[in-house]
Amino acid sequence: EVQLVESGGGSVQAGGSLRLSCTASGFTFDDFHVGWYRQAPGNQCDLVSAITTDGKTYYGDSVKGRVTVSRDNAKNTLYLQMSSLEPEDTAVYYCAAGRQRLDRIPYRLNQCNGYMDYWGKGTLVTISS
User: Fold this and answer.
1) What pLDDT digit, counting tens, does each position of 33-45 carry?
2) What percent of the chain has pLDDT over 70?
3) How far apart are CA 20 and CA 7, in angstroms?
4) How many angstroms separate the Cα of 67 from the Cα of each of 20, 57, 70?
């Protein structure tokens, strides 16, 4: 059974930092591009960051310079280090994996369940001002 399990979400004050993790199982992690999307209530699903199998990274415009994506293939784990967090970063953060080309990855989806092959259930990040 394929699983993507996010962790590390929580509540922090503006200006703080969080590190999200996503542990994968049920498929060959090394063979898949992986990434993070987020969705706030009433909003569409936006790309936060993605990383290819060979380490090329992509970032959404609203988070550039404030987040770093990385992967540890030995641990089947994807990470998202976030800093200088703002209330506008409040959202459910979803981990996703797929074999689709990341140079064509959508930066916005209607819901966090498209384009990529596998999706996690999400972890809530709440930033207070």
Assistant:
1) 999 999 999 999 9
2) 100
3) 6
4) 11, 11, 10
**Segment 88-93 mean pLDDT:** 98
Beta bridge partners of 34: 51, 97
Q: Is the dihedral of CA 87, 88, 94, 100 positive or negative?
A: negative
Structure tokens at 48: 């936060």
Distance of CA 50 to the CA centre of its chain: 7
Task: Name, in order, each residue with C-beta under 8 angstroms of 34's C-beta and a sequence gap of 6 or more.
Answer: 22, 24, 50, 51, 71, 78, 95, 96, 97, 98
Place of tokens 């703080």: 16
Please report, as a single letter, which amino acid is at residue 52: T
